[in-house]
Amino acid sequence: MLLLFFGIQLLVALLLIWWANAPVQTSAFMLWHRLSGGEVVQTWVDYDKIATPVKQAAIVSEDAKFSTHRGFDFASIQAAMRANEAEGAVSVGGSTISQQLAKNLFLTSHRSYIRKGEEALITVMMESLWQKQRILEVYLNVAEFGEGIYGIEAAAWHYFRRPAAKLNREQAALLIALLPNPKYYGKNLTAKRLRNKQRIILRRMNSARLP
């Protein structure tokens, strides 16, 4: 069992080293989607081909301290732990962009403390091997934006018929607002909660500190 554990960590490390420069065109989430019979649409796009408002929106919505922490926002983690203890279940994650990416690339959406522990290990490796700009670039290329729609380029074409480089502030804020529940919101673009979150992101966007 110990050998299996270390073998898995070695495989993860090797993939992270390979993906430090190569386009990332698959993930655990994409794999599970394909295995369940679904079709995956994803097109890799480099960091400088993603509109600045998209990067700003992602940071203010998902991880305000992204550019300064080392993978973990301990204040958010403590708040999530208190919320989970109150509910008696793991319902709030407190995850940073780095942690979300670790989950998307290698794990599943199942919530448990064991999965969070593995997610933490992968996050430490990722933060050690990748620059912040690379983490954000990969995150935006593999995040799910709707049923079978992965990455900001595929999302930009699907929802707005334009490349990610041409997204404006309102469009960027709406796409990032999809992230907590992309399968539902992707089919309900006029949902009140979605539009409220879009407005909040727009108000905060200029405060984003990009890597």
From TrEMBL:
It is found in: Cell inner membrane. It catalyses: [GlcNAc-(1->4)-Mur2Ac(oyl-L-Ala-gamma-D-Glu-L-Lys-D-Ala-D-Ala)](n)-di-trans,octa-cis-undecaprenyl diphosphate + beta-D-GlcNAc-(1->4)-Mur2Ac(oyl-L-Ala-gamma-D-Glu-L-Lys-D-Ala-D-Ala)-di-trans,octa-cis-undecaprenyl diphosphate = [GlcNAc-(1->4)-Mur2Ac(oyl-L-Ala-gamma-D-Glu-L-Lys-D-Ala-D-Ala)](n+1)-di-trans,octa-cis-undecaprenyl diphosphate + di-trans,octa-cis-undecaprenyl diphosphate + H(+). GO terms for cellular component: peptidoglycan-based cell wall; plasma membrane. GO terms for molecular function: pentosyltransferase activity; peptidoglycan glycosyltransferase activity. Keywords: Cell inner membrane, Cell membrane, Cell shape, Cell wall biogenesis/degradation, Glycosyltransferase, Membrane, Peptidoglycan synthesis, Transferase, Transmembrane, Transmembrane helix. It is a single-pass membrane protein. Its main location: membrane. InterPro entries: Glyco_trans_51, Lysozyme-like_dom_sf, PBP_transglycosylase, Pep_trsgly. GO terms for biological process: cell wall organization; peptidoglycan biosynthetic process; regulation of cell shape. Residues 39-205 form the Glycosyl transferase family domain. Its EC number is 2.4.99.28. SUPFAM superfamilies: Lysozyme-like (SSF53955). The keyword Aminoacyl-tRNA synthetase does not apply. Peptidoglycan polymerase that catalyzes glycan chain elongation from lipid-linked precursors. NCBIfam families: mono_pep_trsgly. This is Biosynthetic peptidoglycan transglycosylase.
